[in-house]
Amino acid sequence: MSIEVRPYGRGDLEGVLMLCEAEAWPSFPADPDRAHRALTAAGVTSVVAHADGEVVGFAQLQSDGEIQAHLSLIATAAAHRGQGIARRMLALALARAGGERIDLITDSAERFYAGLKYNRRLVGFRLWPPFEEP
């Protein structure tokens, strides 16, 4: 089976939404048009992995184009994990977006990221508004 990793296009949206549903990520499936806008927004680079015409992975990266990139989302279909697809998506997304490094947070793929060469663990937070004084 051949895996093609390429830039995201509108025709990939249904496959991306199916991957989000499989991961129990509700934001994209709740509003597909908003999901497409998020995947194609200024400063965002989105890539997909295809196997036999089916979307089996996607990644969404935000970058300043020079130094800093942030991995917003990445998913690989369960049946296709362990084949290097996520690594290929990261490499293509960063090459297209520009930057020297990728920062991210994870609650489910710690072993994957820890296994990548040149990783460094840092403490981070995810914040949601309102940002009220304690």
Keywords:
134 residues; alpha+beta; Aminopeptidase; 5 helices; 5 strands; 26% strand; globular
Tell me what you see in this structure.
This protein is α+β, with helices and mostly antiparallel strands and 134 residues long. It is 30% helix and 26% strand. The chain contains five helices and five strands, in the order E-H-H-H-E-E-E-H-E-H.
Could you give a short description of this structure?
The chain is of the alpha+beta class and 134 residues long. It contains five helices and five strands; from the N terminus they run βαααβββαβα.
What is the topology?
Elements: E1 3-7, H1 13-22, H2 27-30, H3 32-39, E2 44-51, E3 54-63, E4 68-76, H4 85-97, E5 101-103, H5 110-114
Parallel strand pairs: 4-5
Antiparallel strand pairs: 1-2, 2-3, 3-4
